[in-house]
Specification:
By secondary structure, the protein is of the alpha+beta class. It has helices at about 35-40, 105-135, and strands at about 1-5, 10-15, 60, 65-70, 80-85, 85-90. The strands form two sheets. A four-stranded antiparallel β-sheet has the order 1-4-5-6, with no helix packed on it. It has a two-stranded antiparallel sheet with strand order 2-3. The longest helix has about 30 residues, at about 105-135. It is elongated and about 85 Å long. The mean pLDDT is about 80. It is a single-pass type I membrane protein.
Length: about 140
């Protein structure tokens, strides 16, 4: 939880999601090969601010007082709530939601595929039994 100093100072802020590797104290100007393999980013005089990494998108949170971030039960997901004069809530998935199905996912096609595979398994099992019986008669 991040708590800002007081309501006396008037903040209009956007919330930025920053990769934790930028806060690694082991960063140096010239990382060794081993540090590069560990994913340590070289030290720079400023942090890169990528417009797509703003959690609040194009919205601003007026008089930002604090930020609360908690993990969700869904893998790779964090819930972020900011408060002040404005309230803002969002769900973040830094690793993308690779393990979640989209709204456009075709459950009917999945069901048809499973039924077709079960039917193919049954048919090949019957053919195998018939072939085995024919081989035994020879």
């Amino acid at each position: 939880m991040l708590e800002l100093d007081s309501y006396e100072t008037y903040y209009i802020l956007q919330v930025l999601a920053l990769d934790k590797r930028f806060l690694d104290p082991r960063r140096s100007l010239n990382p060794t090969q081993q540090e590069k393999e560990e994913g340590i980013i070289p030290l720079t005089d400023s942090l890169p601010i990528i417009p797509q990494s703003y959690v609040t998108h194009s919205l601003q949170v007026e008089a930002l007082r604090g930020i609360v971030s908690i993990p969700a039960k869904l893998e790779s997901t964090t819930l972020v709530f900011t408060y002040g004069v404005d309230l803002f809530y969002t769900r973040l998935a830094p690793s993308r939601t690779y393990d979640s199905l989209t709204d456009e996912f075709s459950y009917a096609l999945l069901l048809i595929t499973i039924v077709a595979l079960v039917a193919a398994l049954f048919v090949t099992w019957i053919w195998s039994e018939k072939k085995e019986l024919r081989d035994k008669w020879r």
